Amino acid sequence: MAERTEGSIEIEATPAQIMEVLTDFGAYPRWAQGVKKAKVLARDIQGRPTEVSMEAGQMGINASYTLRYKYMAKDGGLSWTTKEASGAVKDLVGGYVLEPAEGSTRVTYRLTMVPAISLGGFMKRQAERTIINAALGGLKKRVEAG
Fold first, then answer.
1. Quick one: which of 76, 107, 96 has its CA closest to 12?
2. Distance from the first to the final alpha carbon of the chain
């Protein structure tokens, strides 16, 4: 069974403000390190993206995938599963959990990645940690910049 890796950060914003950035997938290439393209393919009846295709790559390792999104109640976050993938990634399962705090929100990013290329357990966890740290840092910078 694949192990989940996670990381957390405090962001000086409300969960609603953070969700606004998280669901603006078209803007991901501007702040989410490694994301080259993102396109919303389907939306729910509330207009929220439920299926998004992405192209990502770093250090010569590229992947294309389509993710299905589910949303937690009351701007509590979102989660995703892989619909299809090609390139360096076989499967991605993860999510952001948003917990309001006084004057800020604690954001936890959880990720389980199944690479299409052979990586040892340590290397896989390091790759996941790199993705998580870059995502949380980019999200914080984007949200707090307004």
1. 107
2. 39
Q: What is the set of domains in the chain, with CATH numbers?
A: 5-145 (3.30.530.20)
Q: Residue 143: what are its φ and ψ, rounded to 5°?
A: -65, -50
pLDDT tens track for 88-97:
888 999 999 9
Closest CA to 89 of 34, 138, 21: 34
Look up the pTM and report it.
Answer: 0.90
Cα distance between residue 70 and residue 64, in whole Å = 20
21: phi then psi, degrees, rounded to nearest 5: -70, -45
| 19-28, 73-82, 116-125, 127-136: least confidently modelled range | 116-125
